TrEMBL record:
GO terms for molecular function: DNA-binding transcription factor activity; transcription cis-regulatory region binding. The keyword Translocase does not apply. It comes from the Bacteria. This is HTH-type transcriptional regulator CitR. Belongs to the LysR transcriptional regulatory family. It comes from Robertmurraya siralis. It holds the Pfam family HTH_1. PROSITE patterns: HTH_LYSR. Residues 1-58 form the HTH lysR-type domain. Keywords: DNA-binding, Transcription, Transcription regulation. CDD domains: PBP2_LTTR_substrate.
Amino acid sequence: MDFQWLNTFVTAAQCGNFRRAAELLYISQPSVTVHIQQLEKNLGVQLFQRDGKKIKLTEAGRRYHHHAVELLRLYEKGLADLNSFSQGYMTKLSLAISPLIAETILPYVIKSYTNKHPDVEIAIKILDSMYIEEAVMKDEVDLGLSCVNVQNSSLINELLYKDRILFIVPHDGRDAETAPPLEEEEFFLNYYLFTDNHPSYWADLLKAVKSKYPVIKTMKVSQTHITKRFIIEGLGFSFLPESTVRRELLEGRLLEVYQHSFKLPDIYTYAIMKYKHSQQQEFLEFLSNYRI
């Protein structure tokens, strides 16, 4: 059996139209017809009912469609595995990582890890923390690095890091040694407060802020890197994890305001696993040598 026939069959079943299937597969419509006829002859059943230009699966076609999809999945998985093997990879480690973690030390960690373990193929999915637990549970990834704790007690959850939250404002262009200290009230009264760039601390923090400054202008910005960009451009200020702004603070593109009006929370980074296999544990031990 030709796997191209299977691919044509699955595509045509999804489209409900041979012409559209031909367009998606970059082949002629007569070729689609031939592929389906060959597959039907090989299986000894009719897969489609024709109604003018429209097609729909027969009962036998519906029954076989599931098997065809699974055969194609296994075929493609085998090709991917051979491709990895040909590149020198012996094992694979798939990670689900939140955008916040991805933009801190992850590039450096991955580079260091792959240099030390060239036979391990790394696959990375960038997912919001709320979806990482589900990806681990469904075995879509081997390991999740998340900003929120797990809800499913059957999963393994390890605390990796604790991070401080800082009051971050745009640089005012003045010399740090001679300029007067920045006043927090100036920012609360005159600038936007960018919120919702982290999944865990904003609800409680915003209550604390409003208890001190009841009238403030807020703007929801869901991504930390966009929040930083807005602050650098002088559009407003925010409360961000220290790990995400360390470079900008050192380079003088952002400033930290020291305030004591309310307590700023700490945040945490968690490792989420379904199985505590040696490869996951080895990666976590490697990761623990780096401070986020």
